[in-house]
Design goal:
Elements (H helix, E strand, L loop, with lengths): L5 H8 L13 E2 L7 H12 L7 E2 L1 H13 L5 H9 L5 H10 L2 H14 L12 H16 L4 H10 L2 E2 L7 H4 L6 H13 L8 H8 L5 E5 L6 E5 L7 E4 L5 E4 L5 H9 L7 H14 L19 H13 L4 H9 L2 H4 L8 H7 L6 E2 L2 H12 L33 H5 L19 H9 L1 H8 L2 H6 L6 H12 L5 H10 L4 H16 L2 H4 E2 L1
Length: 516
């Protein structure tokens, strides 16, 4: 690497700054509008001696919200019009458009597939038929904005073939078909709690809700029927986690009893779990952290804010997009990633936007999209079950068993546990070396149209601007143009190599590798 990106240097240099001075091109001097969410958060920040960071710039916001909502960079034809638009409502309008887009359903189906363990092989023999049907059901549910209480109840109470009733794969995808294993999966997904940490007496009582689930194979390879075992039809004394006793008749389904209790608006578990996850997905960590470790000994950092989000979900009739919209339109979400004070304290209390490395799937899609290349995948299951069309984006791959060396290196979750921490978005030395030195990335750069574009004639702003708009959703600064012109001053093959170095340097900048 012989050239450094000035933007990357500037971005690193100002992390942890101690003043509120506006940093170009990452921040805006225009004051951000305060919402009810922000007033609640500001009260907690003030009590901790913290304050919001500055408002992020339009360029940063545009790139950030595209990545967070759709898992993709903003298209080239969107960037310039958005940056030129002087409307005060343009950010809210963009949020609405992205939440209504196909990209939202595709990306969030991937994130939900992590939680719901959508994977065809090892440690679960789900088989691709079921994994693909399960993913499609999740995708369609998000696409039609199915209310979250309906979404959860269908997963918890459905019966039938796991090839033909995709939602029953919620149980089929669990490691273990005993009541304890199924109960742990339900508690983790819909209550955000780890049942293994409960006292044994409470855990055994809770497992009763899942004690009648049975599995029956069919003549179809790897197909199973999930059903309520009729041989166990007797009255059942059930007790909910909040202590309510329910006498279920002999012909009842204890799963339905649990689901009916779970989705009640007065239930403290259900809404709290999902809004805490939504906050964690967008803000890097939960108001209760980890977001799937809700318990008495792990209180929220901002309890009033968490209660507010719960009520927003309930009052919107469990509209998950509404909660996303509330968070995305807040000053808290739209603030700079450059904190005004202590970095650790600001990050923990949400006094700045969290800098996060791009998801493995998003990063490889971005690399392929910018360079016009494709990725190769592998699976332990032979074709045709795992055939992937060449134009398929990685975030759209249904089956977690289909992978690549890049995805494994960059922390894509194995989808074995459904835990939030199974996805690892930290940057490691091996990942940095892969981006800097691998033939995988180098070959992609060599096929890129950008190398051809910046290697022609004397490098000027007109040539460099489309490159920066594509990579960073902003125009190059004068200093960046000067550095690039000074470095890319050769001719012929030397100029071609210099142009490749420039692209490589930009791809290895923190501004590119991280959502900020």
């Amino acid at each position: 690497m012989r050239i450094l990106c000035a933007a990357g240097l500037l971005f690193c240099a100002h992390l942890g700054r101690a003043s509120q001075q506006i940093v170009e091109p990452y921040e805006s001097a225009t004051p951000a509008q305060m919402t009810e969410l922000d007033r609640l958060l500001q009260s907690s920040l003030s009590a901790s001696g913290l304050e919001f960071a500055a408002n992020c710039s339009d360029a940063v916001f545009l790139r950030r919200v595209y990545l967070d909502v759709t898992g993709s960079l903003p298209p080239a034809d969107v960037v310039q019009p958005f940056l030129k638009d002087r409307s005060v409502s343009k950010r809210a309008e963009l949020i609405d458009a992205l939440l209504a887009s196909e990209g939202y359903a595709v990306y969030w189906a991937m994130r939900w597939s992590d939680l719901l363990r959508v994977k065809s092989e090892f440690p679960i023999n789900l088989w691709p038929n079921a994994a693909q049907a399960y993913h499609e059901w999740i995708y369609q549910s998000l696409r039609e904005n199915k209310p979250y209480d309906v979404f959860a109840r269908e997963l918890l109470t459905s019966s039938g073939s796991n090839f033909r009733r995709p939602e029953v794969n919620f149980y089929r995808a669990v490691q273990g078909q005993d009541a304890g294993s199924l109960a742990r999966a339900a508690a983790l997904a819909f209550m955000g709690t780890r049942l293994e940490h409960w006292p044994e007496s409470e855990r055994v009582v809770f497992e009763q809700f899942f004690s009648r689930i049975a599995f029956k194979p069919t003549a179809e390879w790897k197909e199973e029927i999930v059903y309520v075992d009729p041989e166990q039809y007797t009255e059942l004394a059930l007790v909910t986690p909040d202590g309510e006793s329910i006498q279920m008749p002999a012909t009842g389904d204890p799963r339905a009893v649990f689901a009916d209790w779970l989705i009640q608006p007065k239930n403290t578990w259900f809404a709290r779990n999902i809004v805490n996850r939504q906050w964690a997905w967008l803000m890097g960590r939960g108001l209760i952290n980890e977001p799937d470790d809700i318990r008495v000994g792990n209180p929220p950092t901002h309890p009033e804010l968490l209660t507010y989000l719960e009520q927003e979900l309930i009052q919107s009739r469990y509209d998950m997009k509404h909660v996303f919209r509330v968070i995305l339109n807040s000053r808290a979400y739209q603030q700079s990633s450059l904190p005004s004070g202590d970095t650790a304290a600001a990050t923990e209390h949400f006094a700045c936007y969290p800098v996060r490395r791009l998801d493995a799937e998003v990063l490889v899609d971005v690399l392929c999209g910018l360079t016009g290349t494709q990725e190769k995948y592998v699976s332990m299951i032979p074709e045709p079950f795992t055939y992937i069309p060449s134009d398929t984006r990685t975030i759209a791959i249904a089956d977690g068993s289909i992978t690549s060396a890049f995805l494994q290196l960059f922390g894509r979750p194995a989808r074995d546990t459904g835990l939030f921490t199974e996805r690892d978005s930290s940057m490691t030395d091996k990942q940095a070396l892969h981006m800097l030195n691998s033939s995988h990335v180098w070959n992609k750069i060599g096929k890129s149209k950008w190398v051809r574009q910046v290697s022609k004639g004397q490098l000027n702003r007109e040539q460099l601007t489309p490159l920066y708009l594509a990579f960073f959703a902003r125009k190059p600064m004068d200093e960046e143009l000067r550095i690039a012109q000074k470095y890319c001053a050769g001719k012929g093959k030397k100029r071609w190599a210099e142009s490749q170095d420039l692209i490589w340097a930009m791809m290895n900048s923190k501004e590119f590798l991280y959502n900020h």
